[in-house]
Amino acid sequence: MARMHARRRGTSGSVRPYRKDTPEWSNTDVQEIEKTIVDLRKNGMSSAEIGLTLRDKYGVPDVKLATGKRVSEILKEKGLESEIPEDLRNLMIKALGMRKHLSENKKDLHNKRQLQLTESKVRRLVRYYTGTGRLPKGWVYKPETAEILLSR
Question: Any idea which UniProt keywords this protein has (predicted)?
Answer without folding.
Answer: Ribonucleoprotein, Ribosomal protein
